[in-house]
Structure formats: C-alpha cells, structure tokens
Amino acid sequence: MKRTFLVLAAIVPVVLLRAHLGIADVPATCDAPHALDKYKLLRRLSLDLRQRIPSVEEYAALDGVDTVPDATVQGYLASDEFRRTMRRHHENQLWPNVSNVRLGDVNTNLTLRGGTALSLAGRENLYRSVRDSNCDDTEQKDFDPAFPGELRPVNVRAAGGERHEGYRMVSPYWAPTTSVKVCAYDAQETLSVTKAGKRVACNTPEGRTDKACGCGPNLQFCYGGNAIATIESALREQLGRAADRVATGKAPYTDLILAQDAEQNGPVGFWRKNLAPQGSTGVTFNAPLPGEPLPERDFADDAWKPLKRSTLHAGVLTMPAYLLRFQTDRGRANHFRIAFMGQYFVPAAKLEPQAGCSNDSPDLTKRCNCQYCHQTLEPLAAHFAGFSEAGSAAMNDTATFPLRRPECVGSNSAYCTRFYVTRDDAPRPGFLLSYQFAGEHPEYVENIQQGPRKLAEAIVADGTFARAVVKAAFLRLMKRELRVEGEHAEDLPLLDQLATDFAAQSYDYPRLITRIVSLPEYRRVR
Amino acid sequence: MKAQWFLALVPAAAIAAFACSGNGDDSLVQGSGNAPPVDHPPIQVQGTSASPRRLSTDQLRASLPIAFGNDATGAPITWKNGANPALSNPGIARSLGEPDYIDTTDEALDPSVLYAKFMDDAARNICGQGLDADATRTDPAQRALLRHVDLADTVESNPAGVDANLRYLKLRFHAVKVAEGDTATVAPLRELFSTVSKASTETDPKAKAREGWNAVCVALVTAPEFNLY
User: Fold this and answer.
1) pLDDT-derived band at A289, boundaries 50, 70, 90
2) If you measure CA to CA, which chain B residue comes closest to A88?
3) Is residue A123 within 8 Å of A111, Cβ to Cβ?
4) Which residues in chain B are contacts of A325 at CB distance < 8 A?
C-alpha cells in the first residue's frame, strides 16, 4: 500500500503538469483571449451563482445547444443556492459575527460559581449581605405569602447579618423541557417593584438593584445555558436575512441601507423584550426605546416575523449586528464608507500639516495630520451618534439621554463617563459626548438627529451607492477590480453604464448580476 | 517524508502558475510574483477578461458531493477528517481562507501551497470513498466515477471503455468535453491509470484497477482545472 502511494505521489504531479499546463508538449505561447466554451462557461456560472460545480447531467443538457441558455442563468438566480452565495458576499462586506460581544454581566449572567445552583455573582451582596456567597444546597420551601407568584424566599438561614436561602428547581427559557437548580433569591419571579414611589420593571437598571427582583419567570431576565450564543447567532441571521431580501430581488437593493422594517425570530424578540432592557453601562448597552413595540416572542420560536421599526432606522445600519460589530461611531462610519461608498482612507504619502492646525486639539478635524481623514470621518460618524457606542440602543429618548446633564461635569459615575462630557476643561462640559464638537460644527446636529438614514439617502441620491454596489458585484464575479482610476481607467464607461442601469431598474440586484455575467469579459478567458 | 512534502508542492506550483497566467493586467511585469519565466516570449493580453480564482471553502463544500455523489448509505460524499466532514472543522475552513469576521475578515482565495496541501489530503480521502461507493453498485449508470467500465477493466481488456470513462471524468470534474475520437487529450490520464494499475501490489484485478482509478481521481481533483475557474 505504501509503495502504491509513493508511485501515485510520483506520477500524479507529473501527469498533472503535462496534462494541464502542457509544459512539455506545446510551445511556450499563451492563448489570446477567447470565449469560454459552453461547458466551462456553465461551470463558471454555476460556481459564481450557486457555489457549486454543475452535475454531469447539467453538462449533458448543453450537448444540443450553442451556449448556456438564459433560462439556466435565471434558474440559478432564482435558486436558494444563489441566496446563500450572496449571503456570503454580503457577510464578506459586513462582517456580522458578534459572537465575541458581551451582552450580559455579573448582574445578569447565571453561573455555578463553585456551588451546585446557578446564581448571579453581581447580586450576592444585595441578596445575602455578603460577598462571595452562595445559597445552601437545600431546597427552599418557604416563600412570602404577601407576594403570591413572586416566590420571594422567607425563613432563610441567617447568621451574623448574612442570609442564605436554599435553591429552587426552575425550567429555564433556554431549555424549557429541563429544570435547573437556581438559588432562590436569584430565581425570584417578581416582575416589577415600587421604588421612590414609581413602579419599575425588574429587568431595568433601577429594578434590578431591588433585592425582591430576581431573574423572573423561567429566568427570563437573565442569561444562562446557550442563550447568549443563540441570541448572537440570531442577530447575525437577522442581518443576513435583510441582505437576502435585496440580493434575491424581493426588495430594491436600496432597502439594504434604507428599510425601516426588519425581521425578528423568537430569540431576538425575547432578548429585546426581556434581556436588553437591563441596559448595563458595564457591557453593551442595548435597551429599547421607551414605547418601542416589543411583541411577545417565545425564545424557542425559530419563526422569523416582520418587525416594524421606528423612522430612525435605516436597513442593516441600525441593526444590532452592525452596531455591535462596529462599536464606535467612527468605526460604523468608516465601514459604511468602505462597504457602501467604495471608499477607503489612505494616508497621504507625505504628511504636511495644514495651516492653522493644532497638535493637541481634542477636535480631530483640527489636529495636525489626524485631520486628513477626520475632516471627512467626523461628520460621517455623527450620523451614527444617535445610537449608543458599544451598544445598539437608540439615544433619542431625551428623558434617558437629555442633551445636557450639568451634574455629569466632574462626575465619575459609569453613566456619565460613558455618555457625557465630564471634564470641566473639555469643550462643552456636561453635553452628550456626541454633541461635544457640535458647537463648532453645527452640521453635526442634523446628522445626529437624522441618523444613518440621512447618510444612506444622500449616497443613494448622488449615485455613490449604485457605483459601490456595482464595483463590489463586479469584483466578486470577475475576480478583479473595475479599472476606473488613473491612467488605465478603461472600465469607467462600463461602471457608469452598469450603475445607471442598476438605479434605473429599481436597484434590481439579480438583474445587475445578470448584466455582469452576460458581459463578454465575463465569458472570456485570459 | 521530505519527498512527500516536495511532491505536495508540485501541484501547488502548478495551481499557482495556472492562476497567474491571466491576471487581468494589461502587461505582466517581470520580476513580480506573477511574472512568467524569464525566457517566456512577450505576452499581449487584453486585460478585460475575468481573472481566475480558486475554489472557496463554500464552493468545495457544495461541489465535492456533486462530483462524487452519494456513498453506499445514501449520504453525500465529502472530504472526511476522521468521521467528520473536514470542511465543517472551523480550523480547516479558516486555513482554507474562510473568514470568521472577527479575527479574519477577508475571504482568502489565493491558490496557496497550504490550499494545495489540503486538496491533496482531500483528494486522497474522497477518491477512496467514491470508489468504495461505486464498488457496491452493479449498475454502472448508478456509479459516480466508474460509469463506463467494469470494476476490473484494464486498458488492455477494455481500451474503449477506459477512454470513455476518462472522457466522462474530464467532463465531470473539469468541464472539458472531450470528443469521442479524441484519444490524445485523455492519453496522460490513461497512462497514469495503466501505470498505477500495473504497479499495484494487489492481486485482485478489481483492487489493481481500483488503485489505477484512484490515481486518476487524485490527479483530477488536484488539477488546476478542478481548483481554478
């Protein structure tokens, strides 16, 4: 067997070279560019549009025809394989993997922590008046009858000011057919409590500091098991489905950056309603807007249903997967510029400070050298400032995020340092961070208030978007860039024509793909 | 071991050379990584054609079962790493250029030596599976690889059948339609089949032929024409 392997290993490469490169058998000349024959063309089309080679039967169907029929191409474009192919194309552009994002923290993540029952590390002091504590390994039987259904533990073991409750068996939302041991304080099913005369939900920052608040029914206010991975995977899928809709022609391609509606499945809906409102400042901030519709969804429900979003939203740009993948306003704007404008920041070969620039200006549009890119980037980034950095929460609720909070000046609270200008010697102390430089750049205000939608509408209107989409599709299918710059800009008329037609045909993406794979350049070799 | 590494590099060089032969530039600059040999005659290339690219991990995942069909149990044949599909292994997928969008964000599609090494591994694994599956099927029309020969056929016993099968495999794997009377195009593969079959230490004629077909299959799967388009 070993001998056969060595014979095989020795012969195969030689045959390979002779058979496929013709090194020994043909003169050292290259073929002139020529059209692919129909079988090779079918293979190229199938790989580009379906991600797979054709079957031998599909090759055989070409025997009686001159070329690959248009109906075959249209069949490929209508297939689910095309959707999957384009999913990859759009993921390559948008990088929607958020599996490394922290959704929960010690106040919301249920862990074993050395005990036999799940509990919350961040609330042990609140519940038991002692740190590094856990519940006892006995079942908690007694609950306060004054609060029926809330299962608040009473008659717990108390010693030296500490309290140690037992555990309860609970069916968690992430595995409802099973039951897990949870410390009884952490498993309390209270939905809301009264604080300072106001009724507050237990899954809010105010509510969760009350010791009567636990993880709620079925632990719905806490993360555990595979819940975070399931949610993050669903957020990626949510963005992918938005790309699917436009890529398959179910909606104009502009919907990718303009659509107000979206889809959500059980895990996304459940997260938004029950878990995202926790709104911790220590991790990603994803609290929904007050009054935002939050339909009841079962975590185990995989069905995707339409979701109406507010007018602030703009396609994938305001989806959690985009906002959490690119966590700063600048990062979001820069990636927007790359993916949807086809433009990249390239440092100048030689940096020459502009007249009047400053080496220490906190405003990067004025700082020497930084200003090369930031004069463009800062106004773009302002469009994303209506959404929390390191989060996906809209910040246009003036009750939670007033434009100015004087009490934040000099404050080191997590809330202030995260969202407000706290230094008294900084520009506009006490203002929301996103408005820090809006005094000198009044255009930022409109950008912030109108959000990514304004930016998206502008690049659609001036043709930048159509050209960027054409360039990206061309690159994928032709495996080379369009030549539209410099001395050899021979593809410029083609770009203009494809982009103009794309816009004129209601941004019909499959039609654009058809145009590109019909080009003689696509159907040619060398 | 050194010899095996060298041999693994040869198809890589072939793939790289094939990939670079039409890079879409107006002129090829000597001295760059894409340059032809120094004694290559001047090349006049219209630079507007599509450039070649190697198969992506997605394309391999979807294409290998099309090329090889199903095994005896009806499951699609694909490259296995132990009992599991190799291309489902995140480490292998990433090595083949699949981005995870956290650590890697570009889908690497260069015809690298690493890619050629993996395809060599894949070919040796998957060709055996395909031939094993074919061996269980008495009706040649149901076979993926040996559709025009009997399992023990040799070049001497059935030259027309061997050539027909090679033509069929060239179409199946490379989208090359070889005319019925064209014996030259399949001659290198016929030679490979014959040489390896005869060199086999097996005594069963079916097993000898199987080794010959395995060599042909590995040649087809590691060829630039399978891996580039």
Assistant:
1) confident
2) B58
3) no
4) 101
